[in-house]
Amino acid sequence: MVTTPSTKPPKKRTWKFWVLRSLFVLLLIGAVWLVNLIWFRPFNIRHFYDRVFVATVLRSPELTTLLGLPVLYDWTKDEWDNVSDAQQRRNFEQVKEDYQTLLRYDVESQSPENKLNTSILGWYMKLQVDREPFFYHDYPLNQMGGVQSAVPDLLVDKHQLRTKSDIDAYITRLNGIPIKFDQVLEGLKIREQKGIIPPKFVIGQVLTQMKTFIDGGVYKNPLYTNYIHKTAKLQDVSADEKAAYSKQVAEAIQHSVFNAYQKLIEYNEGLYARSTNDAGVWKLPNGDAFYRYQLRLHTTTNLGPDEIHQIGLTEVNRITAEMRTILQRQGYTDTTQTVQVIMQRLSHEFRFLFPETPAGKQMILARFKQLLDEADKRVGVAFDMRPKASLTVEPVPLFKQAGEALGRYQMPALDGSKGGVFVANLRSSAEHPTFGMKTLAYHEGIPGHHFQVGIQTELNRTAEPRLPIFRTVIPFTAYDEGWALYSEKLAYELGFYQNDPFGNLGRLQAELFRAVRLVVDTGIHHKRWTREAAITYMVANTGRSESEVTTEVERYCVMPGQACSYKIGMMKILELREKAKRSLGSRFDLKQFHRVVLANGAMPLPVLEETVNNWIEQSKS
Ligand SMILES: [Zn+2]
Questions:
Q1: Does the record bear Membrane in its keywords (predicted)?
Q2: Which of 189, 198, 175, 248 is nearest to 1 (CA)?
Q3: What is the pLDDT of residues 20-45, one digit of tens each?
Q4: How many angstroms separate the CA atoms of 187 and 168, rounded?
Q5: 67 and 167 both lie in a single domain
Q6: Same-domain status, 19 and 130
Q7: Is 528 part of any domain?
Q8: How far apart are CA 346 and CA 443, in angstroms?
Q9: Do 17 and 146 reside in the same domain of the chain?
Q10: With a threshold of 0.70, does the pTM exceed it?
Q11: C-alpha 285 – ligand 1 centre gap (Å)
């Protein structure tokens, strides 16, 4: 039996602190309630929506730090989330209770807006509640994340060091790491007893990460260099105080942090010896049911693994054939070579590459800007709704280049103080052959993530009536990645690839990649493919390098079902558009369709379908 450390380290806190903190919490909840009381009918369901959101933030000091919430940040900056088994159970019970509360509201008597609010939040909560039989079905430590990387990341990236109180909190957090790691260890042992053990290749990478972290010693450790770097210029802390603090920081790292890592390393070395290389979750207890749950969680549909596998195979064939036709028209007629091999060769052709120099990289950045400016002007034919937020193009900072994707979208600030950003990774010009650039720009920027996420984050300010805050942040990957993928195709339909057969090949290559994911994810977790078989299939069908594909496959192993959300979401949006066209004939309006899809922010696909169906019915009359 594993025991949880039940006592927290003593804190230098007075009764005043606790009274103030309680008052503050009451005030915050009171303010929300008051706002509802004033603006809406008392005991309105909207009070409940906000309460759920506020309660989630209050439960998590780490989330508060990550979001950088003013005031609240200072109250909880020296704490970690309690991840003990008992606390996670309590959190789960709370979610169940909240869901029951939501169900007790009389839905029929609500306004259409609140019906939609309830439907979206209800979906989201039910997906959480349905996890109950699979409460332990995950790998808390894996190569993509876990405390071994999340804890230092939070301290380095998000924990502020501007005042003495910030430094005190930093040291308290360092010394709190052993308790946090013990809680994680407790969870790992429970999982091991239940036969939930990550594949050997996952444990091996986690071990490497942890050993690398402590290998360099205290003074080269990022937790130490971060402290030195951030406090160097502080005016309010004297040189003597800084020296005393740095000693405390070093001691905390040496004793608390390194010992905590050492303990996790020892346990995982034992686990490594007891693990196998089986890659899929079929190997877990009740693994097939778990995978079905994961597919529902990520796609928000009831599509089973065999169906998704088949959809993937069909799409891979269709897209590969389309690419073959285009390649042949462009003179690549050697049919003894696969499409993927020809695409590989294409990406090395001089005519498609920018120079591998700072000037070449500036040209890439300028090209992305130009593409997005043009898209912004041309999408007007298909949209009468746009985000207010601006879109800029920025390069990934040098020190982050190695670990980041080729491009990503950074959402605007919720208060509108900063616009959206398309962040391009310029570590190597060779990674941006010209024929792939349009698709990346349309996906991340316009009309992709920037339009969808931008509109969603503004719902709380622009929609009439004002939407509850949860609607601006709630994620449904099938919807938001589905939209971004749909945008790639929409750009093609709008003529953005006219007279650009190679750009169109780049688009199809990107679509093919998402279709391959359907085959590989279901292959690993349902059809019991090995990691190696998955890599072989993926190299052959995407033409990407083995190292790149290996990272992908290992990601699917620890995030079952996630990789299926993109293509399934896109296909649903296309299907709904076709249905609307068929039903409305000449009355179909593309601008209106896009408004219906985007104006409500992220939704589960069945709710989106219902919304589109309602619109079709209204438009008919
Ligand atoms: Zn995306």
A1: yes
A2: 189
A3: 555 455 455 545 444 443 333 335 67
A4: 29
A5: no
A6: yes
A7: no
A8: 22
A9: no
A10: yes
A11: 32
Phi, psi for residue 515 in degrees, rounded to 5: -70, -40
Over 90: is that where the pLDDT of 511 sits? Answer: yes
In a domain, 91, yes or no: yes
Peptide bond into 397 cis (omega under 30): no
114 shares its domain with 172: no
- Distances in Å between the Cα of 232 and the Cα atoms of 34, 64, 161, 165, 252 are 44, 26, 10, 16, 19
Residue 139 Cα to ligand 1 middle (Å)? 24
Give residue 105 CA to ligand 1 midpoint distance, Å: 35
Q: How far is the CA of 485 from the centre of ligand 1 (A)?
A: 7
Mean pLDDT of the chain: 90
My answer on whether 177 and 72 are in the same domain is no
Domain that holds residue 47: 1-135
pLDDT tens-digit readout, 276-321: 999 999 999 999 999 999 999 999 999 999 999 999 999 999 999 9
CA of 294 to the centre of ligand 1 (A): 20
Distance in angstroms between the alpha carbons of the first and the last residue of the chain: 66
Is residue 141 within 8 A of residue 205, CB to CB? The reply is no
Sheet with strand 407-410: strands edge to edge: 391-395, 420-424, 407-410
Compute, in angstroms, the gap from residue 408 CA to the centroid of ligand 1.
Answer: 7
Integer Rg of the chain from CA: 26
Determine the distance separating the centroid of ligand 1 and the alpha carbon of 443, expressed in angstroms.
6
Rounded to the nearest angstrom, the distance between the alpha carbon of 422 and the centre of ligand 1 is 11
What is the pLDDT at residue 85? 97
- Ligand 1 centroid, distance to 98 Cα (angstroms): 31
DSSP string, 491-523: HHHTTTTTT-HHHHHHHHHHHHHHHHHHHHHHH
Residue type for 603, please?
Answer: M
CA of 565 to the centre of ligand 1 (A): 11
